[in-house]
Amino acid sequence: MGTSSAFGGQGGGTPLVPSWLGNEGSPPAAPDGATPPNGGGAPPAQPPARPPAPPERPPVPPTADPTRFSAARGNFSRFAGSGGDDRKALGRAVSHYVGSSSGGARTAAARMGSARGAGSRLLGFLSDAARRGATEALRALNLGALAGRPIEEIFLGLADYVCPDGGTIDEGIAREAFVETIADLAGAGITDLDSLTPDQMQTVFELYATNAIEARLCNDIGLKAVSLPSDSRQAARVQAQLNDFIRRAVADALTTARAAVAALTPDRVLAFVGGIYEQAFGILQIMGDAEAEGA
């Protein structure tokens, strides 16, 4: 939730998944030429050429419901206002966010945008480091000078590769989630890239995906509009519970795909990461419904 504080929140009228790409209109076919009759002679006069039609503008995505985050925001405010005690409100907030506000798990995953690309680059690097060693993986990125440095320094050096800072909110979310992941490494017991195990590789990606989803959710519902506890300990408890809730969903999604992680190839990483986000959002909705019902 520290990530989202840098952003003002998602505008209600913003399309769920903006898409400004479309097929350009094709110019009209040239008129058929006439074949001169036998015996020669000038061909019949051609009709005046028509100017090519201008390309068709891609359709503008329909404006989304400006109130679509209201239910998620209201329930999260109740959860936060309870100091983390009202778990049913947390469940309703998460369930509404995935199902109603985002349009389902697939659309929610598609809205991760830059975080999908950043997650795939991070996972690709970690796979390469586990396979060939950290030194060779860093050399491949022209970062060989970082070899042997503390893992936090290595990851800070990887920031521009994993999540280039392009200035948009989406890119900012991806980058801040990566910075938070670096801060989480020591607490997860990950201190040496040279001896990275498959379980630790999965943990690093799990931390990143969790931070990215949390940041996306908090930015969308507009955390600044949510009433947080004034007590810093209660606020920290609220944050920790949300992070743990999301991480459980990400961990479950990764567990079901454990075999696929070991067999990842560079050309399949992006699709794999997108699939993990989609599964995680689907699990989050199920968990939210169960929590809301007091199960």
UniProtKB/TrEMBL annotation:
Q: Where is the composition biased (Pro residues)?
A: 44-64
Specify the domain of life of the species encoding this protein.
Bacteria
Outline the segment boundaries, as ranges, of region: Disordered: 1-86
What's the protein name?
A: Uncharacterized protein
Q: Which organism is it from?
A: Aquamicrobium defluvii
